[in-house]
Design a protein that fits this description.
The complex is a heterodimer of chains A (about 110) and B (about 240).
Chain A (H helix, E strand, L loop, with lengths): L1 H20 L9 H23 L5 H25 L3 H26 L1
Chain B lengths: L4 H30 L2 H36 L5 H14 L4 E11 L18 H13 L4 E4 L2 E3 L6 E3 L2 E4 L3 E3 L3 E6 L2 H9 L4 H7 L3 E12 L18
Antiparallel strand pairs in B: 1-7, 1-8, 2-3, 2-7, 4-5, 5-6
Classes of the chains: A mainly alpha (about 110), B alpha+beta (about 240).
Chain lengths: ~110, ~240
């Protein structure tokens, strides 16, 4: 468990470092989609932390959720943009609510310890 | 400690999340730099303010000029006033009334054939300059274009579809040039055989003029300031 936490922290900093140092240029029009993907990924990560605390962390569920959620969020937002339906708002609300729920549950688990 | 499979997954996910966060952060900050609508608004406001200030200053110039006129109206200054009037006409600081002509210039109304250069059929700053020059040569004493008094330093410049004169006055076609002088001389100078009007008419540009018994040309309204030149005793 602790090893996993350290690994995650190191990985996160490594990723941040790479992202800030390497000039990855994406067209500005992709900004909203990447933003949604980030939101979905964050949601998956907090979901994973919660599952870890509840001792039913499943690697496959976590990994598939991370990638699928991010891709679907961006994809749905793209389709919504084409159709003129603001699906990105729906994704923001859905993932936002789940994010805060997960955070609340994590907080309670931490408090119980 | 044994590294299990899911440790790799967590590490990978963490690295990916970090990259995504960083890229998104950078994109967002660069987006905000480009959001210039606020800046545009600010600049527009500034322009408005400056315009208002300009108007106020213009009003003050008028006021002070009037005061100057009042001061020169005193009897002992009569001789000087005559001279001042002459110099004023020359410099454009006083309105002028007298016989003259009114010339109207406008773009060609010839229908363009495909492939023809529309530039050839449009009134240019050079055409206006030619007309003004001809009028000056024919003895015009005061000149104005679209009610803008032309003085010694007045320019006729092309800026896009309009012309610029007196520093910041934009004029658009049709141009009405008023000139004070001998109406017949002025008219004939423009419309003589092979003259300016004929050349312009070749391109379909509309030139018309009417002789008038009384032409009123208003005074130059801009500021008069000399930064570099010194006159009078210093010269």
């Amino acid at each position: 468990m602790w090893f996993g936490t350290i690994l995650a922290a190191v990985g996160l900093f490594l990723g941040l470092f790479i992202g800030l140092k390497v000039p990855i240029v994406l067209p500005e029009s992709y900004a909203p989609y990447l933003g949604l993907a980030v939101l979905a990924a964050l949601d998956s990560v907090f979901g994973g932390i919660r599952a870890g605390m509840e001792d039913h962390f499943d690697n496959t569920v976590f990994l598939s959720g991370f990638f699928a959620n991010a891709l679907f969020a961006a994809g749905l937002a793209y389709i919504g943009e084409r159709l003129g339906v603001p699906l990105s708002t729906a994704a923001v609300v859905a993932f936002g609510v789940r994010l805060f729920q997960n955070l609340a549950i994590i907080r309670r688990h931490l408090l119980k310890k | 400690m044994k590294i299990k499979g899911y440790h790799w997954a967590i590490g990978l996910v963490a690295v990916l999340l970090g990259i995504m966060l960083a890229v998104q952060f950078q994109m967002n900050s660069s987006l905000q730099k480009n959001l210039s609508s606020e800046r545009t608004e600010k600049l527009t406001q500034q322009i408005e303010q400056k315009k208002m200030a300009l108007e106020k200053l213009q009003a003050r110039v008028e006021e002070m000029r009037q005061k100057l006129d009042e001061a020169t109206a005193r009897p002992e200054l009569g001789r000087l006033k005559v001279q001042l009037d002459k110099v004023g006409i020359m410099a454009g600081t006083v309105p002028v009334v007298g016989p003259g002509i009114e010339v109207t210039l406008n773009d060609s109304n010839v229908a363009l054939q495909p492939g023809q250069n529309p530039n050839l059929y449009v009134l240019h700053d050079e055409d206006v300059l030619k007309v003004l020059n001809e009028l000056k040569a024919a003895g015009a004493e005061a000149l104005a274009i679209n009610d803008q008094r032309l003085i010694a330093t007045s320019e006729i410049r092309c800026i896009g579809p309009t012309i610029l004169t007196n520093g910041n006055k934009r004029l658009a076609a049709p141009f009405v040039i008023t000139a004070i002088g001998n109406p017949d001389t002025l008219y004939n100078a423009l419309f003589m055989k092979g003259g300016v009007a004929e050349q312009l008419k070749d391109w379909g540009i509309q030139v018309s003029a009417s002789k008038m018994n009384e032409v009123i040309i208003s005074a130059y309204s801009g500021a008069i300031s000399y930064e570099y030149g010194n006159g009078g005793d210093k010269a």
